[in-house]
Design goal:
heterodimer; A: 434 residues; alpha/beta; Aspartate Aminotransferase, domain 2; 15 helices; 44% helix; B: 421 residues; 7-stranded mixed beta sheet; 4-stranded mixed beta sheet; globular
Chain lengths: 434, 421
């Protein structure tokens, strides 16, 4: 009996739930559990497939959270799972110092599919870690220190990434942080222009701000940034952790504007939601820095043999099934539904926006986000508000979502908004009664 | 067949140079380590051309349960029939189970767990937790220490070469000599949040902390309300002959970080484990530290399987016994090659050969590779060769490594060019 057999042998779902909740209270985080409940996220995941996840009790949901975009190829994608299983017949992680053939193959593949002259890769495990590498490369290569980043941006929580995150609550208890980060408003070229100094090493941003509330950058803004950076010998870094691998309707979001950054950061969906891997991809020019410092950025778990094989299988799956195009089609269908909701619930839906299947729906006040998430769960959809902006619900389903499933989600939104409308009416009547 | 393996190797080296790092490939070639790993089993790895090596690098202690351990592989494959990573924002049974298990096997009252993917991330969180909980800012770390490359960990590293090109670092870090209680005491101020250290410095050159040092630090930290963080990333999970290195001294830290072998050499996972009292900070800020890939369903299942394997097979005890066997061989080498080998420092199977000068490290790597052993000098101290084989290494394999060391040292003595120590 292995540990998995033990886990699978238990069929009493109430017992599992109780035991899990106890363990969260005793060994993880008691308050997080309460938050899960209040936010409609108290699902314990059992079966996963395509766009769906089943609670251990058998309740089915369409997953619109997907770990903020790790399941572009679908939940528990069987083809990629089989590839990883096959890899396990031969490989383990591999030694970090060894020359890993699979790492070379994946780096080559990334050089081919990323835009422009992006060519070299450094692999890590998580998105934040890859952002750290990008910032370190920028400082190391330019010999300058300042990083211009965006208000409401999100880049991770480790030491070089955290100061770039544009929200105080994540940072304040841990101050003083790494110095040299300057925040400017998003989509405001003049703000960047005036923040640039002789000591500016890089401009870092997400082509669509995710946690900041699903805010796409304008093409002209990105083109302007590119020009500004080139003129001032400043590196342009795109954090495509959430937008990469087909999410916005192109393989990489940068392609919409035709702007190629000097460094691109990738993670999340890179390995099909099955194995941690992330990377920073950069130009040949920047690799000069690593030529003189070959072992300055090392990582035991980054770009293991298994991770690279899983990533290669994932990219193959995304290309073979043309998932970026699917994101365009399904995104369009979603957007039509969302616009209808905006029309039908003008007092509740302030805005709908997004790119491909990276969508956001904005409510007039913060409290509606969590209330909607709870109602959506009741109506069969798991969703969450964006971290830096709770009045926006993020919709980021798997790119393999079907038309019926899109319609189901829109219908769930419709039902949930009706309930909110009824609640608000009840509240107003009570208010009027007083 | 051999010809095609050669071709694959050639292509792999070319791809690595062209898309990953040309200089890295060159350095590895010069150290005889331009190995493309094929088959892996137990203590051994085979180059794709078929040459067999005993792996004494093991990614600095990531493979305690052995290369491609079949039992753990079977568990992960089975888990893959049911699970994916899972959504980090949801409640996960697997995460809860592993947290409970870690609380059970770690010493003293270490109880709550925050999961990450890599070791650096776990240390970053430990330092953040110390600042957040104590509301103080200064972190004391030790010279030659290694804690990882993410921002907070990097600031705590005791080697400038890793940090300098990326200045400015996170402020508030102070470095003190290792194993020097007085230096630590003199550095502590009213604003000191924590001291972070490895119970055995790994990259620093395999330097075990003395029991008296750790006990003295514990006392000082208690008196001054300073948190004690043990980085057990290299020393954890049986490496030093106990499940965790701190058990040797009986000192329990307030925060412990683990990574590496928790993932069984198959799946990245790390954890920061801390005392209940510290959780007050996370209760007030439940979502202040997030990790998409940290503590995934698959990673937690692997972690549980690894711990079960270590306990069931008494792997820490085996490590202690194999360490003794190595020591007998080292004692002979110390007598026979005093011009090369100055000292051996060891705790269990965490072993460091102190050569008489820096040039010997790379030369020994090259010779050992010719003699069927993969080994490398430590990151912060090139005159020290680290030997960290898998803990399931067998007696005849220990003897093979000792024999390879003997042959390699004889070859270097014959070549000459050793600066007299």
């Amino acid at each position: 009996m292995t540990v998995v057999d033990d886990i699978l042998a238990e069929k009493d779902f109430e017992k599992i739930r109780k035991e899990t909740e106890t363990n969260y209270r005793e060994y993880l985080n008691p308050f997080a559990l309460r938050m899960f409940k209040n936010a409609g996220l108290d699902v314990i995941e059992g079966r996963r497939e395509g766009a769906c996840v089943w609670d251990i009790s058998g309740e089915k949901y369409i997953d619109c959270v997907t770990g903020a975009g790790i399941f572009n190829a679908g939940r528990h994608n069987r083809e990629i799972t089989d590839a990883l299983k096959k890899a396990l017949d031969v490989y383990d992680m591999g030694g970090w110092i060894s020359i890993i053939r699979e790492r070379g193959l994946l780096a080559k593949k990334l050089a081919q599919i990323t835009p422009g002259n992006l060519k070299y890769s450094i692999f890590c495990c998580g998105g934040g870690e890859a952002v750290e590498v990008a910032i370190k490369l920028a400082r190391g290569h330019t010999g300058k220190t300042e990083i211009i980043c965006m208000e409401n941006g999100y880049h991770g929580v480790t030491g070089f990434a955290l100061p770039a995150t544009g929200r105080e609550v994540y940072k304040k208890p841990f101050a003083p942080l790494t110095p040299g980060y300057i925040h400017v408003p998003f989509n405001d070229l003049d703000a960047v222009k005036s923040a640039i100094t002789k000591d500016t090493a890089a401009v870092l941003l997400e082509p669509v701000q995710g946690e900041g509330g699903i805010r796409p950058a304008d093409d002209s803004y990105l083109a302007g940034l590119r020009k500004l950076c080139t003129e001032n010998e400043i590196l342009l870094i795109f954090d495509e952790v959430q937008t990469g691998f087909g999410r916005t309707g192109k393989m990489f979001c940068a392609e919409h504007s035709g702007v190629t950054p000097d460094i691109m950061v990738l993670a999340k969906s890179m390995s099909g939601g099955l194995y941690p891997i992330s990377c920073a991809v950069f130009t040949e020019e920047i690799s000069d820095f690593l030529y003189s410092h070959p072992f300055i950025i090392i990582n035991s778990f980054g770009g293991t043999s298994l991770a690279c094989l899983t990533a290669l299988a994932t990219i193959e799956y995304i290309e073979k099934n043309n998932l970026p195009e699917r994101a365009v089609q399904m995104g369009k269908r979603f957007m039509e539904g969302l616009l209808a909701l905006k029309k039908n619930f003008p007092e509740l839906v302030v805005d709908v926006r997004g790119k491909g299947l990276m969508l956001g729906i904005e409510f007039p006040e913060d409290s509606i986000g969590p209330r909607m998430a709870c109602l959506l769960k009741k109506n069969g959809v798991i969703s969450i508000y964006t971290f830096n902006n709770p009045k926006i619900i993020r919709i980021m389903p798997s790119l393999v979502i079907t038309e019926e499933e899109v319609d189901f989600v829109i219908d769930a939104f419709d039902k949930s908004l009706k309930e909110i409308r009824a609640q608000e009416a009840g509240r107003n009547m009570k208010g009027a009664g007083k | 067949m051999t010809a095609s393996a050669e071709d694959i190797k050639k292509q792999a080296l070319a791809d690595f140079s062209k898309y990953v790092n040309p200089q890295k490939a060159r350095v590895l070639k010069n150290a005889g380590l331009d190995i493309i790993e094929g088959k892996r089993e137990g203590a051994c790895v085979w180059d794709i051309t078929g040459k067999k090596y005993i792996d004494c690098i093991t990614s600095a202690g990531s493979f305690n349960v052995g290369r491609r351990n079949p039992e753990i592989v079977a568990v992960l494959k089975k888990a893959l029939d049911e699970y994916d990573l899972g959504v980090f924002l949801l409640c996960s049974k697997q995460k809860a189970d592993l947290a409970k298990k870690l609380a059970g096997i770690t010493p003293g009252d270490l109880q709550y767990v925050m999961f990450g993917v890599g070791g650096g991330e776990a240390n970053d969180f430990a330092i953040k937790l110390a600042r957040g909980f104590t509301m103080k800012t200064e972190i004391i770390s030790t010279l030659k220490a290694y804690h990882g490359h993410t921002g907070f960990s990097l600031a705590a590293i005791g080697r400038d070469a890793y940090k300098k090109p990326f200045y400015p670092m996170v402020p508030g870090f102070k470095l003190v000599p290792f194993n020097d209680l007085k230096a630590a005491e003199e550095t502590m101020t009213g604003d000191t949040a924590a001291i972070i250290l490895e119970p055995v410095q790994g990259e620093g050159g395999i330097h075990p902390a003395t029991d008296a040092y750790l006990q003295g630090l514990r006392k000082l930290c208690d008196e001054r309300e300073i948190l004690m963080i043990f980085d057990e990333i290299q020393t954890g999970f049986g490496r030093t002959g106990k499940m965790f290195a701190c058990e040797h001294s009986g000192v329990v830290p307030d925060i412990m970080t683990v990574a590496k072998s928790l993932g069984g050499n198959l799946y990245p996972i790390s954890a920061t484990i801390y005392r209940e009292e510290l959780n007050d900070f996370l209760v007030a800020h439940p979502f202040i530290h997030l990790s998409t890939f940290g503590g995934s369903d698959l990673g937690c299942i692997v972690g549980m399987a690894v711990i079960d394997y270590l306990v069931k097979n008494k792997v820490p005890e085996h490590a202690a016994a194999m360490g003794e066997r190595f020591q007998k061989g080292f004692d002979v080498l110390l007598k026979k090659y005093p011009d090369l080998l100055l000292e051996v420092r060891r705790k269990g199977l965490m072993m460091g050969l102190q050569y008489t000068n820096e040039s010997i490290g790379p030369r020994m790597s090259y010779q050992l590779a010719q003699n069927g052993v993969m080994a490398i000098y430590t990151g912060n101290e090139p005159s020290v060769m680290r030997l960290m084989p898998v803990l399931v290494i067998q007696p005849d394999e220990v003897d093979f490594v000792i024999d390879a060391l003997e042959k390699s040292m004889a070859a270097i003595m014959k070549q000459g060019g050793i600066e007299k120590y």
